Amino acid sequence: MLSETDTQPDIYETNIVKPASLSLQLEGDGIVKGVLEDVKGNCAVRKIHVQIANDDNKIVLVVYHDKLEALADCICNYDVSFKMSKLLSGSYQLKVYCAGPNMKYDERYIVYNGQINIAKNKKTSITFSGPLTLPEN
Known about the structure:
Structural class: mainly beta
Helix content: under 10%
Order of helices and strands: HEEEEEEEEE
Mean pLDDT: 88
Radius of gyration: 16 Å
Strand content: over 45%
């Protein structure tokens, strides 16, 4: 595990403090391809999921992982791809949460809360204000 006091600042910045990012691209068929980059989680994580709720002009993404069989003594960066269907071009209120395997989340685990604009065949990118770190359980 990297610690702020025992690790070279550039390595700590790159691996721990670096904020996560999200890119969304609306294809012509109404399918949005999404990628979350630099999601942090225990290195024993095998699969990361994105639960999607789309209601009116509100989108909620909950990022979570399968139950861990054992914990590793390290944190890894993951890139997570997902798809959303039946979206139109427009402005949306987006909330992104991180959760453990039980998929329970609340405002303490919010990573992003803001407006985004999605347009056909145009990539929308957001850099979060900090890391998206998945709870271990």
